[in-house]
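Issue 218. Parser rejects a valid record. Input:
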Amino acid sequence: MKKSLLALILVFKFAFCGDKLTFENLFSQSIKSFPNIQIKKLDQQIALADLKYARAEFFPRIYLSANSEYSQKFDDDYYRSAYIGDESIISSTGYQNSASIVLRYDIFKFYQDKYKYDAAKSKVSFAINDECDYTLELGLNLLENYYKAINLKHQIAINSQIYSYYKTLLLYTKRLNQAGLAPKTQITQYEITLSNTKAKLLNLLQESQYVLGEIEFVSGVEINDINQLADLSDESFSFLSFDDTFRAKKLSDEIMQKELLLKSAKRSYFPTISLYAKYDFYGFDDEFSNSYKQTKKHGYKIGLNFSFDLFDGGRKSAQISNAKAELQKSRLSKELAQKEYEKQIRSLKAFIDSSFETRGNLEKLYDDSNKALNMASRLNENSQIPKTELLIAQIENLQNKLSLNEYLSTLKYNIKKANLLSKQNCDFTGSF
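Output the parser choked on:
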């Protein structure tokens, strides 16, 4: 087990010596390769297709209808035409052919079609802002895992050194015990501490593999060693109001879309005025070939149609109730999103505003720890303190260094997060 842990530490310390990967590199690669980004782009294509379909409702439909049939009548009586309800009965024996050019056009639907078209335009805007909002969320997710990886990198590096110092400390304590200068309990205490440090280190190494897997999943970049990751950098930023964010714009588009669909649903109670026209060609003969030759202009008709549903079984009422509920749901979603965003911004501001004093305290503590370590080194060189006290001072110095590194990583993480939230221009790769 000891050899295995030592091998892992050596791999960690010396495996990677190449170029560093930055958060910006990985985020840029994520935008290019992550499948959900491509899905969001397809959603935009779908929305554009829906917009074209809604626009087509403003144009007439012109289509061709053609028929060729044979009919057999069993008596010689001739009927020009005979109908029972909507069904015609055979009036002659022979072959007949017809072709018709038909036009149908809804002249006025009391803006029902216009509201649907405007709703389709809002859907396109929603799809664009949805991609931008998802890209931002993808960046924040990647940043969180990147921050965890950087913290783990520092913890593994420093705890590896601490583990090495505890091994040496245990060795010296055993020698002092043999000389009667250290109690047996101290040996037991250091053995427990060494075991705990080893277990902690193994857990950190295992956790680092999981976090690297999360980063690889999002970015598509294979990372063999956590040391490939460069530390986060300091950046400037400015917070935006919620209304200027992609999330707000997306949800506003969704609300607009549902408001328009509700208006359209209410206009379905109004009648529809339509224009229709039909131009017919017709031919009839006892011989099949002659029936085609006899086909000629037969006539045309044109007219207006007024249609109004007197009873629909409650379909329109149910549709309107559904549209109202969907609209209220979207409004509440926007209200919740605003509260979550403002809470997030307050938390970031509070941390960053207090960072100057906290950072100063930790830097002073680490500086004092360095001074104490230097003093212990000189005293040990002059044989004024034993090697064990120097090792303890080295361990305390590393622990203070780790506290400072972890805080600086957290500070840079929050600044980077604020920077991402402030760049709401849907061009994340060009903003770094």
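Fixed in the parser; the record now loads. The chain has a mean pLDDT of 89.
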